[in-house]
Amino acid sequence: MSLRKFLDELTSLNRSEQRGVLVLATLLLILAIVRWAHPYPGNQIPVLTEEEARMVRDFLLTQPSGTNAERATGGMQESKQTAEQGAQGTSGRKPQQTPARGLRQTSGQASQNPPQPIELNQADSMSLVRLPGIGPVLSSRILKYRRLLGGFASVDQLREVYGLRSGLVDTLSWRLRADSAQVQRIDLNHAGFPELRRHPYIGTHLARSILRFREHRGLLSAPEELVQQKVLTREEYQRIRPYLSATP
């Protein structure tokens, strides 16, 4: 573009537009001087080509006249920040990663001190409510089911609690444990019908079968006799075994 043509276009602008163009030209001149005083590696001073200058001028002319100077100033500041970032990348400087290292250290410290598992047969309502996904309702159901069972022999038995999803049990399993030595056992040689029937794994039908067997065969020497005499199936016995005993 010739200088005469540029001056003709400049004089055709209103006062605000002319002031914006002059501000832009001044800032470009200042930037060129700064880059000349602080050259980039290899003494390569980036300058705007004629095409780039035309695009900048056309952009400013299409904006509202009252904001030309402000937009020009903001654009120059962004260009300067981009140039500084490019210079840092060229010089081989790496961005600081102190916050990320701090997060990794915190994570490592947490993994070194995991929370102690909650023993289901000793836990109270407050301990259970603090677990994620366990509210007051589920906590109450867990404790009620524990009383009916006589204690938990396995964490997997939580899947039998109404409303407690299997996915939630899988998520919480590493934070829980069940000591089978603490469960209350039913003495098959002395338990009555109400006690046998009340257990969730026995019920009315099995309770009557156990009592009939005891009446005909006498005292049991071991709970396994119920399987040998086909009072219980192998699957039923495996499920109930932690809760049975046979005291002479």
How would the blueprint of this fold be written?
Layout (H helix, E strand, L loop, with lengths): L2 H9 L3 H23 L12 H13 L5 H23 L7 H15 L5 E2 L5 H5 L6 H14 L16 H7 L3 E2 L8 E2 L5 H6 L4 H15 L7 H4 L5 H7 L3 E2 L3
Question: How does this model look, in words?
Answer:
There is one protein chain. The chain has 248 residues and is mainly α. The protein has 3 domains: 3-89, no CATH class; 118-181, Photosystem II 12 kDa extrinsic protein (DNA polymerase, domain 1), CATH 1.10.150; 186-245. The chain is built from 12 helices and 4 strands. The chain has helices at residues 3-11, 15-37, 50-62, 68-90, 98-112, 125-129, 136-149, 166-172, 193-198, 203-217, 225-228, 234-240, and strands at residues 118-119, 176-177, 186-187, 244-245. The protein has a two-stranded parallel ribbon. The chain has a two-stranded parallel ribbon with strand order 3-4. Helix 2 runs parallel beside helix 4. The protein starts with a helix and ends with a strand. Residues 65-76 and 98-108 have low confidence and may be disordered.
Low-pLDDT residue intervals, each spanning 5 or more residues:
65-76, 98-108
Query: How many domains, in number, for the residues?
Result: 3
Structural class: mainly alpha
Give the assembly state of these chains: single chain
Elements, N to C (H/E)? HHHHHEHHHEEHHHHE
